[in-house]
Amino acid sequence: MKELVIISGKGGTGKTSLTAAFAALSSNHVLCDADVDAADLHLLLAPQIKQQTDFIGGSIASIRPADCTRCGICIEHCRFSAISDDFVVNSIDCEGCGVCVTFCPEQAIDFPPQKCGEWYISDTRFGPMVHARLGIAEENSGKLVSLIRKQARDIAEENGRELIITDGPPGIGCPVIASITGATAVLVIVEPSVSGLHDMQRVVDLASHFRIPVLICINKFDLNPDMSATITTKAGQAGLQIVGRIPFNPAFTKAMVEGITLTEYRQADPDLLTLVSTIWQTIVQSDALQKKQADSILPIINI
C-alpha cells in the first residue's frame, strides 16, 4: 500500500482542486482529507456519510465552587490567565495543560475530556473517503490528522486498496507533520512567486527531515515564467522531480463553483485535461511513489 500526500507551503495554490482531479483519474484508492482545520475536499466530492464519530481531543479545567478554598494556587500557576479572580475557568483561554489540576491542594478542579470535532467515513463517486471537521478554535489538529490517516489505512487494508490519496494541510506546522509522517511520497504544489519559492523550500526541508521523497508541480506557471524557471532550477539542484507545469486556467475555479472536479467540467480545455492526466500518470510512475528514490532528500539551497 502506498500513500501520496499533496501539500503546499500556503493555502490557495490549487492543492484541493488537483487532489480531486487525481481522485477522478485514479482507481483502487482511498481518499483522505487531512486538512482538518479547513477541510474542503468534500465540497468537490459530495461524500455520503456512512459513519460519524466524535473526536475527543483535549480537556478543559472546571473548578467546583463547593470544594474550592480560594487559595489562589491555580491562578498563580496558570500561564494562560484562564482563571478569573472569582475562580471561574474561561474555556476559551484554557489550553488544557492540567497544571491547575495537578497543583490544586483540595483536588477541587475537574478535567473532563472535550469533544473537539467529528470525523467521518464516507462514500464518494470516486471511492471511499475519510475526512473530519475540527471545532472552531479547538486544539489537537495533529492528533485528529493521525486518527483519520489511520482510518484510511485500515480501510485500504481491509478492501485491498493499493493507494491512499491524501489532501494535506498547508504550511509546515503540526498538522502537516502529522499528515506526511510515514507517507510514501509527497507532492508539493507551488505557485511561481518569491513567496511560493520560499514556501516550497520550507515544505521540502520538512519532508527531507522525515526522509520522504518529494515531487514538485508548478501551478499557474505561465503567470511568472521567470520565477517558474527559477523554481525548476532550484528543484533540479536539490534532485527533485518536476512532474508538471499547469498554466493558469479559469476552468479550475468554474469547476469548483459547480462542486465538481476539473475532469467532470464539460467546458474544460481538452489540452488541459490531457495535461492533468499526464501529470497524474507521471506521479504514479515516478521513482518517488515507487520507492526507488534515495532515502535522503537534499534541501534546496542558495535561494
From TrEMBL:
The keyword Iron-sulfur applies. One of its GO terms (molecular function) is metal ion binding. It comes from the Bacteria. Residues 59-84, 85-114 form the 4Fe-4S ferredoxin-type domain. InterPro entries: 4Fe4S_Fe-S-bd (IPR017896), 4Fe4S_Fe_S_CS (IPR017900), CobQ/CobB/MinD/ParA_Nub-bd_dom (IPR002586), P-loop_NTPase (IPR027417). Keywords: Iron, Iron-sulfur, Metal-binding. PANTHER family: 4FE-4S CLUSTER CONTAINING PARA FAMILY ATPASE PROTEIN, MIND SUPERFAMILY P-LOOP ATPASE CONTAINING AN INSERTED FERREDOXIN DOMAIN. This is MinD superfamily P-loop ATPase, contains an inserted ferredoxin domain. The lineage of its organism: Bacteria, Pseudomonadati, Thermodesulfobacteriota, Desulfobulbia, Desulfobulbales.
